[in-house]
Design a protein that fits this description.
By secondary structure, the protein is α+β, with helices and mostly antiparallel strands. It has six helices and eight strands, in the order αββββαββαβααβα. It binds calcium ion (CA) (2 copies).
Length: 221
């Protein structure tokens, strides 16, 4: 006679489980098409366009679509420096990973992102639950990002399978100036290096191993 409640309990567990799976599927429905992209400005020379894995430098302002409240401004964050990030690998919210694809240096866009591709039903900090967000982004530079095995080998000058700050800095400098961009002051590259080590040197020993570096490739292996 005790079988029935047990069975019901199991069924309940199963039903909740199935419900969760269905909810998960529902949440994942938002797609690339749900990100609205408006190009506000395109420079004359707009040949080299961003793609997944590229290292980008950009300013972005974030607003709530509902009432236009500004919730983020990179110009007032971190002493106003534009943000460095690798595109398409989850360092920025999904909607921006999608909405900032195909941009060139100098380009400005307005990107509208549904909550599913931003902070979802929970929200985060000043962003309330289920909020559609509008970002105004301005890209300063697009360069080959430090993520492929090929670029690891390029960066690892002494071929010892770990990257030092000096190796990463040298790589950025060469990559950045390769396209004829004018040389920048050391602090410019220092910030890039800091950012990369912040995101990749997980054990904080001042070196990036192949394993730490490959975090960018996890979805391509
Ligand atoms: Ca090395
Ligand atoms: Ca390390």
């Amino acid at each position: 006679m005790m079988m029935l409640p047990k069975f019901l309990g199991f069924c309940l567990f199963l039903c909740i489980h199935i419900y969760n799976v269905i909810v998960d599927v529902t949440v994942a429905v938002a797609t690339i098409d749900d990100v609205k992209i408006e190009v506000l400005f395109t420079p004359d020379d707009c040949v080299k366009k961003s793609k997944k894995g590229d290292l980008m430098n950009a300013h972005y302002d974030g607003y709530l679509a509902e009432d236009g409240t500004q919730f983020y401004c990179s110009r007032s964050d971190k002493a106003g420096h534009p943000q460095w990030f690798v595109l398409g690998v989850g360092q920025i919210i999904k909607g921006l990973d999608i909405g900032m694809n195909g941009m060139c240096a100098g380009e400005k866009r307005k990107v509208t992102v549904p909550p599913e591709l931003a902070f979802g039903e929970k929200g985060k900090g000043p962003v309330p639950p289920n909020a559609t967000l509008v970002f105004e982004v301005e890209v300063y530079s697009v360069s080959k990002g430090p993520r492929s095995l090929e670029s690891f080998r390029d960066i690892d000058l002494d071929d010892d399978k770990v990257l030092t700050r000096e190796e990463v800095r040298f790589y950025f400098k060469v990559e950045y100036e390769r396209d004829g961009s004018k040389p920048r002051e050391d602090s410019f590259y220092e910030r890039m290096v800091n950012d990369v080590f912040q995101k990749s040197d997980h054990d904080r020993d001042g070196l990036i191993t192949l394993k730490e570096y490959n975090i960018y490739e996890h979805d391509e292996l």
